[in-house]
Amino acid sequence: MPDRLVLLGSKGGPALRPGGPWPSSSLLQLAGRAIVVDCGLGVTRGLVDAGISLKALDLIFITHLHSDHVLELGPLIHTAWTAGLATPVGVFGPPGTGHYWRRFCQAMAFDIEIRMVDEGRPDIRELVSINEFGEGQVVEQRGLEVMALRVDHPPVTDCFALRFEHGGKSVVFSADTAFFPPLADFADGADILVHEAMLEEGIERLVARTGNGARLQEHLLASHSFAEEAGRIASDAGVGRLVLNHLIPADDPAVGEADWTAAVRKTWAGDLTIARDGLVVELA
Predict the structure, then answer these.
(1) Does residue 262 contact residue 231 with C-beta atoms inside 8 Å?
(2) Which residues, 6+ apart, have CB-to-CB distance to 150 below 8 Å?
(3) pLDDT tens digits, residue range 241-270?
(4) CA 201 to chain centre
(5) Is 259 exposed, middle or buried (0-12, 13-18, 19+ CB in 10 A)?
């Protein structure tokens, strides 16, 4: 299995529009592991479309508990279970992840228990281990190391950038964050930095079509990064490639890849990828 990053869902925010992209989720294939990062709506279909066998589900990481990052965590694991999952799955997330999983299992108790009896399936609740983390080392197993850094995403306090390393290769996910200079040290020398991004000229149109425009705009400006700011982090970190992801806006017909590129090129001159659903980035 080649080392690669697959961007399963590339938009920021939970709302869906006809023909538009899906919320946040990524697949990182590294060291022979299939690692899911965030589980926004559509992650299960995205994994299947990427050629991943759901019954081989192994590691899942959640950066924070906003719905566009965690909504489909339970349904992903349950669907994998119905597809034949019978081996342990490790879920790593911020405080509150265990509460989500327990309540999901309670809501699905009838289906879980009847399938165990009727179809002979193992108890899904015993297959899944929930590991809640803070800053620092999250995982060290079989040569894979995962580190976490708390980032600036008010009003959410438990929101974490993640750095994955194995065999000299490294990939960093910014999670959702305002411009946060310590992230450059965290991402220092990474092969790939996946950083969220907003485009200034698209924000006014985005907030104008919502019923809570002023409040939404206030949140976006306080809690997210413009493309130029993502480029500054990538430049300061000296990463090999910058991937702009969690795009805001992601479904504005007046905004195209050239607009994102023009914005980030103000601060970043290196290799660049603008996310879209299903896009594959090879990790050499």
Answers:
(1) no
(2) 134, 135, 157, 158, 159, 160
(3) 999 999 999 888 888 899 999 999 999 999
(4) 24
(5) middle
